[in-house]
Amino acid sequence: MHMRHASLVASLLAMLGAPALAQTCAPATAALTYPISKKVDQQDSYHGTTIADPYRWLEDANSDETHAWVEAQNKVTQSWLARIPERAGIRTRLTRLWNYERYSVPFKEGGRYFYSRNDGLQNQSVLYTMKKLGDTPRVLLDPNTLAADGTVALAGTKISPNGRLLAYGTAASGSDWNEWKVRDIDTGRDLADHLKWVKFSSTAWTRDSRGFFYSRYDEPKEATKLADVNYFQKLYFHKVGTPQSADTLVYDRPDQKEWGFQGQVSDDGRFLIITATKGTAHKYRVFYKDLSRANSPVVALIDAFESAYSFIDNDGPVFYFNTDNKAPRARIIAIDTRKPAPENWKQIVPESAQTLVGASMVNNELVAEYLADARSMVKLFDRKGKLVRELALPGIGSVSGFNGKRSDSETFYSFTGFTNPTTIYRLDMQSGKSSVFRQPKVDFDPSQYETRQQFFTSRDGTRVPMFIVSKKGLKLDGANPTYLYGYGGFNISITPSFSPANLAWMEMGGVYVVANLRGGGEYGEAWHEAGTKLHKQNVFDDFIGAAEWLIANKVTSPSRLAIGGGSNGGLLVGAAMTQRPELFGAAIPQVGVLDMLRFHKFTIGWAWTSDYGSSENADEFQALLKYSPLHNLKPGSCYPATMITTADHDDRVVPAHSFKFAATAQAAQAGGAPIIIRIDTKAGHGAGKPTAKQIEEVADRWGFLSKALRMNEPAKVAAQ
After folding, report:
1. Contact call for residues 542 and 484 (beta carbons, < 8 A)
2. What is the dihedral of CA 90, 93, 94, 99, to 10 degrees?
3. Is the pLDDT of residue 432 over 60?
4. Is 470 helix (H, G, I), strand (E, B) or coil?
5. What is the pLDDT of residues 370-422, one digit of tens each?
6. Does 342 have pLDDT greater than 90?
7. Is 422 within 8 Å of 397 (Cβ atoms)?
8. By 3-state DSSP, what share of the chain in percent is helix, strand and coil, each rounded to 5?
9. CA torsion, points 484, 531, 456, 449, in degrees to nearest 10?
10. CA 106 vs CA 112, 132, 433: distances in Å
């Protein structure tokens, strides 16, 4: 990709009406002595190019040397954070804001309702059940009893069709590895069933409730299970009451190590639908098996990785799918399995100007969820595709839910916005009326805040949206501390959502901004592909363009602008801060993919090559090298204040990414701004993180920014 020349930057900002940015190092906020990170003579050859990797030893998370380095880094980080007087007050306020009831969207199965609830400060949400909506809910499963420190989380639940059994998965310390058990819903007791080495798996019961389908990997080596590459996923059937060793292998592909399998049983119980994936690309193959016939074969329905297909429901042998086949923003089609050739496919709901992101069949109607400029809208169609109604929503926000069966006359959904705590609604499908099922009370006044959507022009002329959220009456004087968040990858859409963490930031006087970058799914597959592989630089250009707009329009200034993001968003932050370090006052890359030459060598990293490409391919290697955050840290450079975050049990993006980036950045930093790394323990990539750990992490984040952005000092905007 590219690094912009100073003259180009100056002329661009002049056209935007913004002052030129001086490339000077930030003064030290506090003297820091970093732990010594030894260098080794490790060099690798990529297509004739030699690349040094002096901190390769940090990839061994189990070595004594790495443990000592982690301990030393955490000591420096905690010492620096401890000197922030505001941090304790931030933690106290966060605790009050976090202390509100949170509910999941209810669903109905086997004549019972199920939903989860967190009373506010519980580390994990509790699963409840009840027979009727007015009944007093009964605790079915409380994950807080599984570990005293809350580090065992529910990783999935599935109720048997007869409503008598619960299959549930747990994850320990944030790992992607899950263990599954079965609980008797009436007695609340677990049966003897115990499944291990499950990862990235759906669960689907047979209609007779005798067992369920799930996906697993072969047992890994215990010592390296958090780093070893995951290949050869297999789909199994587990019969309740039998050991895992007796499970039946339903489908695998020994000839295709990268294929993964997700099983789904149609509501009528007749078909097992198997969706085959390859990496993280939204391009699937679809197979099915007729469960009404003994020993029926697995039949290929769609046998090429060309488009996305999501099974909705069936009319006997006719399957309904949500697909982006010949429709980048997706449509709904029907495929008759007796006449499966594409020329026989029937379009039910055509592609529209909005992006179709999900669909379900309830009350014999199709409930279709769309994104219009990254905000939710919902339309209901009959089975022939005729519009029945559009669902009225409370404002700018995001919806989810709409689960149910064709025979159901009700469904539930959630609505959330940046200043709207997630509220659960019951939708009467026959009248079309929504009513509040659960609405939380949070210790803040939403009328004091506003959300506006702004469009800006990226480097190549692309129009990109972003949400700007702040207290009302924002002064455009360039002095506002601003946190710019982004993701930009894997067809994932970043839509409005409520967060007590972000609310605390705005109470501190901060502005919260979300940029909807290419690489995401906000505008369909074309928008996603425009931010992948050889086009990945578009994502960083979009993010930088958002920052430049915020500065040019005096929302903030470089010394008051922080950037943050996690996982692929951590890559985004790492790329932005290495390409344009003078543009930001602070950076927080969280659990980031930062070594773009070796990411595919650990756990599920190989699956990301569909978005990133691979250093094993010559042209993609050149593209990766140009933006890889680790490889674009330049000695003697002036980087913004940076807090890198990771966790010891992250087996999605292994912590070696953050370890090597921190060691390299500390050695490269010429200015006085701190480069610290916060390494959490008994935590993973983020899913299932206990409430207490979340509050501590956010308190450290906002505490770090309060000091790094000098939020208690007058902004020296004119000097930028």
Report:
1. no
2. 170
3. yes
4. strand
5. 999 999 999 999 999 999 999 999 888 999 999 999 999 999 999 999 999 99
6. yes
7. no
8. 25, 35, 45
9. -40
10. 10, 12, 17
Percent of the chain's residues with pLDDT above 70: 94
Is residue 464 within 8 Å of 507, Cβ to Cβ?
A: no
Which tokens belong to 421?
A: 């705590």
- Give the integer Cα–Cα distance in Å for 595 and 664: 11
Pick left, alpha or beta for residue 169 (phi over 0 → left; psi -120 to 50 → alpha; otherwise beta): beta
In total, the chain counts a number of residues equal to 720
Phi/psi for 72 (5° steps) reads -65, -40
- Residue whose pair of structure tokens reads 């010429």 in the numeric block: 670
Residue of 558, 587, 590 whose CA lies nearest to 673:
587
Containing H/E element for 387?
A: strand 387-391
Q: Which two tokens stand for residue 160?
A: 């048997």
Gap between the Cα atoms of 102 and 422, Å rounded: 7
pLDDT (tens digit, 9 = 90+) per residue, 183-210?
999 999 999 999 999 999 999 999 999 9
The mean per-residue pLDDT over the stretch 131-149 comes to 94
With the CA atoms of 684, 689, 692 and 697 taken in that order, what torsion angle do they form, in degrees rounded to the nearest 10? Answer: 50
Encoded tokens for 13: 């900002």
Angle at 623 between CA 620 and CA 629, to 5 degrees: 120
Do the beta carbons of residue 188 and residue 195 sit within 8 Å? no
407 with 313: CB under 8 angstroms?
no
CA 508 to chain centre: 26
Token pair 């480069």: residue:
675
The token duo for 479 is: 């002095």
Phi, psi of 392 (to 5 degrees): -75, 125
Catalytic residues: 567, 685
Give 495's contacts (C-beta < 8 A, 6+ positions apart).
Answer: 371, 374, 375, 376, 397, 398, 522
Helices marked H in 38-157: 64-82, 86-98
CA distance 483 to 480: 10
Residue 606 tokens, joined: 């190989």
Residue with tokens 């590895």: 177
Distance CA 237, CA 245 (A): 11
In the block, residue with structure tokens 């509790």: 126
Of 207, 201, 158, nearest to 183 (Cα)?
A: 158
Q: Which residues of 535-560 are buried (b: 16+ CB within 10 A; e: fewer)?
A: ebbbbbbbbbbbbbbbbbbbbbbbbb
Cβ(157)–Cβ(202) under 8 Å?
no
DSSP reduced 3-state for 404 = coil
CB neighbourhood size of 599 (10 A): 24
DSSP states along 623-640? HHHHH-GGGG--TTB-PP
Q: Tell me the two tokens of residue 18.
A: 């913004």
Query: Which of 378, 371, 369 shows the shortest CA–CA distance to 522?
Result: 371
Cα of first residue to Cα of last residue in the chain, in angstroms, is 27
Rounded CA separation 119/126 (Å): 9
Position 563, amino acid = I
Q: Could you give the angle at the alpha carbon of 77 between the alpha carbons of 72 and 80, nearest 5°?
A: 130
DSSP state of 508: T
Measured CA distances, 247 to 216, 243, 290, 356, 711 (Å)? 11, 7, 19, 37, 59
List Cβ neighbours of 135 (8 Å cut-off, separation of 6 or more).
none
User: Distance (Å, rounded) from C-alpha 128 to C-alpha 143?
Assistant: 12
Three-state DSSP state, 494: coil
Q: What distance in Å separates the CA atoms of residue 594 and residue 660, rounded to the nearest whole number?
A: 9
Question: CB-side exposure of 288: number of CA atoms within 13 Å?
Answer: 23
- Residue 135 burial (C-beta neighbours within 10 Å; 0-12, 13-18, 19+): exposed
Tokens linked to 182: 């079965």
